[in-house]
Design a protein that fits this description.
By secondary structure, the protein is α/β, with parallel strands linked by helices. It has 11 helices and 11 strands.
Amino acid sequence: MILKDILHIYHNELDNLFGNEEVNSFFNLLIEHYLDLKRIHLVLYPEYAVTKEEEQPLFEALAQLKQHKPIQYIIGETEFYGLPFKVNEHTLIPRPETEELVDWIINSHTEHNEASQLKILDIGTGTGCIAIALAKHLKKAKVSALDVSEDALKIAKQNAVLNEVDVHFIHDNILNSRHAKTDLAAVNFDVIVSNPPYVRNLEKVEIQPNVLENEPHLALFVDDDNPLQFYRVICEFARLNLKDSGTLYFEINEYLGQEMIALMKEFNFKDIEFKKDMFGKDRMIFGRK
C-alpha cells in the first residue's frame, strides 16, 4: 500500500478529533518509530509503498488513536528536556511545563553545583524525568528520586540507564510516617523538588479524554476537600530535611497559587517566588528554608 494513502486514511479518520496538523505529527512519529522513515521521505518519495507487515502497526496505532490513547503510550516513548524517555500506562507523560521547572532549577544552581556536590531529591518521580534531567545537566549532583509506584520506578530506572545517569531511586510513600526508617533520614538536601498530584476531582471536566482515560489517576488527582495534601507533607519533610538556605521547588495547580504561598509561609519558607509557565499560568513556586 502507498504510504501516502495511509496518511490520507489517518486524516479521514482523525482530523475531526485532533485537527490536521496534529494528525500529521502523529503520522510522522509513527513512521519514524515503526519504519525508521523521516517526514521528508513522504515528500521525496510520494509513491513509496509499504508491505502488509509494515502497514499493520500503523493501522493498529490508528485504532488506538481513535480510542484517545496518547501517542506516547502507543510508541512507548517521548522526549523531555531534549532527552529520550520510556513511558507506559503506569507513568504520567512528561509535560512541557515541567521542563520549565527543570530549567529554573538548573539555571539557579549550576554555579553552586560547580563549587560543591549538590544533594537533590525529587518526590513523586514517575518516569524519572525531573531527576534524570537534573542529573544530566548538574553533573556533580547526587540525585535521589522517590515514588510510591513500583511500576513507575521500573520505568524510571530504565530511563536512568537510557540517559546514562546515576540516580538513587527509593520506593516509598511520602504520605506515610516511616521516613525516619528510610535512607532519606540521614541526608540533608540542598534542593527538594516535586510535581505531586494536584488536579482536584472538580477539575476533571477540564481534562482531555486522552489524559483522563489513560494516564494514572494516582499521579494526577487529589480530593477536593484536601487539595494541598501532598504539598503540606512535602513542606514538612523539607523543613526537616533541607539544609539551611536549601531550596524547595513545586509544580502547582494554577488555581491554588495564593494557598501555596500561605502554606509555604506557614512552614517558614522565605524568598517565595512564583513563575508562570509558557501559557501565562502560575505553575511553579520556589521557597528557601
